[in-house]
Amino acid sequence: MNLQRPNGTDVTQTSNRSRDVVPGSGICSRCIDGCRGNCEVFKSSFRGREVIYPGPFGEVTAGGDKDYPIDYSHLNILGYAYGAKGLPDGAEGTPDNTLFPFADTETVFGTEHPVRMKVPVFTGALGSTEIARKNWEHFAIGAAISGISLVCGENVCGIDPELELDDKGRVTRSPDMERRIENYRRYHQGYGDILVQLNVEDTRLGVAEYVTQTLGVETVELKWGQGAKSIGGEIKVNDLERALELQRRGYLVTPDPSDPAIQASYHDGAIRQFERHSRLGFIDRDDFAASVSRLRELGAKRVTLKTGAYSMRELAMAMKWASENRIDLLTIDGAPGGTGMSPWRMMEEWGIPTFYLQCMVNELAEKLASRGEFVPDLAMAGGFSTEDHIFKVLALGSPHMKAVCMGRALMIPGFVGKNIDLWMAEEDLPKTVSAFGTTKEEIFVNYETLKSEFGDVVDEFPLGAIALHAFCDKLKVGLQQLMSGSRNFSLPAISRADLVALTEEAAKVSNIPYVMDAYRDEAMRIIEG
Known about the structure:
Layout: H1 40-47, E1 62-63, E2 75-77, E3 107-109, E4 115-117, E5 121-126, H2 130-134, H3 136-146, E6 149-152, E7 164-165, E8 171-173, H4 175-185, E9 194-198, H5 200-205, H6 207-214, E10 219-223, E11 234-237, H7 240-248, E12 252-254, H8 260-268, E13 274-277, H9 285-298, E14 302-307, H10 312-324, E15 329-333, E16 338-339, H11 344-349, H12 354-370, E17 378-381, H13 387-396, E18 401-406, H14 408-425, H15 431-434, H16 440-443, H17 447-454, H18 463-485, E19 499-501, H19 504-510, H20 520-528
Parallel strand pairs: 5-6, 5-18, 6-9, 9-10, 10-14, 14-15, 15-17, 17-18
Antiparallel strand pairs: 1-16, 2-19, 3-4, 7-8, 11-13, 12-13
Helix pairs in contact: 3-4, 3-18, 10-12, 13-18, 14-18
């Protein structure tokens, strides 16, 4: 099985000349002196480190395309013709009370101050990348009106051009953070919440104190990592003075903008961008407990943890320490992940793939439960985009899995709606859109529904927000249909028994019955009875 193809990919804007490529190296089987490009080795020979990252920065999100041996498509959802679960008050199922719109897609996470969401999804961490910053209004308002949670990612304060610090280097005001929180809260309807992440730099800048005590944020997320990379967050900046400013704030900026040779290269036009990197975080059991306690003392009603595609050892640390400190939600992000900026080869070749990682999560959660220990509410991230993904994740992780974190899939509607707005203004709608009309009322199937709920203020909503709401509605209805077909009319009713593994290898990894073995004993008793 050819799992990946190095050295030429659209993500790094490179490609191989030859139709025949050496599988291991990705180099053309016949590499010609005089070739005019454009494989990664060719491009790296004059652009160097630039070719590490997806591009163009600020215009794309990228997701790894490595084909893993097992993924969620190796599971199928079972349907039944007998019985029904999760009906209100334990009612018996009838053809009249089991219509699919009756399936309840609401989920809850959290301990003392639970959060309800209308659909069991929430956004990935939308932090300091340019694509998150410039599209934030679409994402935030869309999440709020859809009744889902929104994660404001790391480094937002640290890169704010208008950041104000006290004489100890602690945040006193961040207009961009204020904007982000206000955008979500403005149309918040009581479902979901905004989570603000903290990394090493955020902790040093006093972001937790600022967002909880000044801005009234109720949910703070500690960040250990993500599925796309094992190093800290990264962005690019185009301006030398901006790069120097971020360096003065304590960030690692490469190439070094204070180096005269680098400055000369910048003025020559050879260096056009600088990279800002976050530091690696180091975890410690006592430090983690102290951090959780401190956040609660600052006023955080909920403390959550996001961890990445690390080894099973780090996963066990995350789950055990989250249990000890009664974390409100633990999100585990599997490889390959999707991001605004991560090293491409790291995204392809690093970390535990999501399916395998969730199976590890299940094993450890059951171990905690068998010992009578608290199992935190769990969520999985790592390449999800459809309602069947949601069902399979919740079923595979039942009863502890509460939601799915969607990164790129919840960003795409924001882009789509924003661009439809631009295309309408320019009278340049593509046929894929104009086939449905030329006005927002004609194009967006949910426009009048939103207007009946929110009134004329809908006319002020950015179209990316309306698009995100339409996508969430599609997820909800699709999930309701899958739930109805499997005779589950509430999310807690979904269980591992609603899945079968299509391959023996998937059955071995997941401990889900192989398709030829599922319900075999019951079937034989019926035949023999």
